[in-house]
Model the fold of this input.
Amino acid sequence: MNSNIKHKKNYINVFLCLINFIFITPTYAQWNDSFEQHKTYILNIKTNPFTIFQGPILYTAEYRLGFEKPIATFSTIQIMAAYLGKSPYVYLAEAAMSYNDEIKINGYRFQAEYKYYFLARKKGTSPFEGFYTAANASYSKAYITNYYFKMRAQGINATYQYIALKFGYQHTVNNYTFDFFYGMGYRDITWQSNLPYSNTQKLNRGDFVPFDNAIKILLGFNIGFRI
Done:
C-alpha cells in the first residue's frame, strides 16, 4: 500500500515538472524578453578605443568619451568630447631619432549630432537601437610644437571642422551598444604656423591629408553602455 502511494507521488511530481517545463518556463522566458524590450534606458555612454591610434588631425591620438540621450520617442542627441594627444606612431618616430627632440601635441575635439531612429518604439524599447540617420558636426583643434619652440611660444595650430549627414545602425546586446555608421559632408582644414623658418603662415593642407578636397567621408563606429 505504501509502495503504491509512493509511486503515485512520483508520478504526480513528474507530471508537475512536465507542466512547468511546457507551460510555465516558456511563459517566464517570454515575460523576461518582454521586460527587456520595454525597459527604458535614459543614457548611452559611448567611446571608441581605437581612435588612440589616429585622431581627426594628423599626428594626434584621440581619447573620446560622450553620451547619447533620448529627447523624443524616435530621436536622440549625441554629444562627444575628446582630448587630442600624441599618436603612438609619433612616439615610435621619436624613438628612432638620433637626437632628443620631443614633439608636444595638445588639443581637443567636440562633436554634436541629432539622430533619428526609423523603427524606434516598434518593440517598446527606448531609441538606442536600429537604423538611423543623423546630422553631425565636429570641431577639432591641436597645437603642435617641441620643447625648444614651446619656450618661445612658437608652433603649428591645426584646425579641422566639418558637417555631415550620417546613416548608421546601432546594435544592442543587453546594456551594450555597437554603433556602425557612414556618411558624407563638407570639411574645412587649416594649418597655421608661426615657426621662424616657415615661408608662410598658412601651410598647404594637402601635405597633411590623403585627399586635398572639401568632401568629408565618414566611416566608423562607437561602443556604448546604456543605463
